[in-house]
Design goal:
CATH superfamily: archaeoglobus fulgidus dsm 4304 superfamily
EC number: 3.1.21.7
CATH class: Alpha Beta
Number of helices: 5
Structural class: alpha+beta
Enzyme class: hydrolase
Strand order of the largest sheet: 3-2-1-4-5-8-7-6
Helix content: 25-40%
Number of domains: 1
Radius of gyration: 17 Å
Family: Belongs to the endonuclease V family.
CATH topology: archaeoglobus fulgidus dsm 4304 fold
Strand content: 25-35%
GO molecular function, one term: magnesium ion binding
Protein name: Endonuclease V
Amino acid sequence: MHIEYPSSETQAWALQETLATQVICEDNFDSISTIAGTDVAYDDATNQLVGAIVVLDASTLDIIETQVVTESVRFPYIPGLFSFRELPPLLSAFEQLTHKPDMIVCDGQGLAHPRRFGLACHLGVTLDIPTIGCGKTRLTGTHEALVETRGASAKLIDNEQIIGEVLRTQDNIKPVYVSVGHKVSLSTARDWILKLTPKYRLPETTRQADQQVNRALKALQAQG
């Protein structure tokens, strides 16, 4: 796994532009038996990031493996370049996995990003694994109103381009924002997010990773 870490904002913009051309927006995988979730949190007091990857059985949604990594921040917070900040701890966690997932769901955007290269794209291209972006909030684009029933969706459009889908995963609950990360079509991404949300608004992949990150963050703060 060859990773390039930019040393400046200018280098990061250039690298992002190059990597964005490598995103594959079609289904390019065989069967999916394991699926992973990711989450990253920042601790202000120590200037460290906690990254977690949780691998689930794609059929039962049972946890197979969890890896959590704490690292110092390598890249500053710059809007539009957030993935350069969050990617390093996720890659470190991925390297520790004994069960490599067939697909990854990111707690963040894929193509639904101003420069069409959110964290899900960056992680997917870097690892060469099918990846889906599923954000809690809209980063860019507009969409039509959704009905209040589970499964309702609308295209997310920016500059006359479809960049994702707004998907209601539970009745009368705020929707999520689904987009292609890498090697997955938008319709497949939407279908997987529905499979992963049998009870809650957020996919089980994200929920489990979030719990692991919060637990590690509390332990880190307790040490400080």
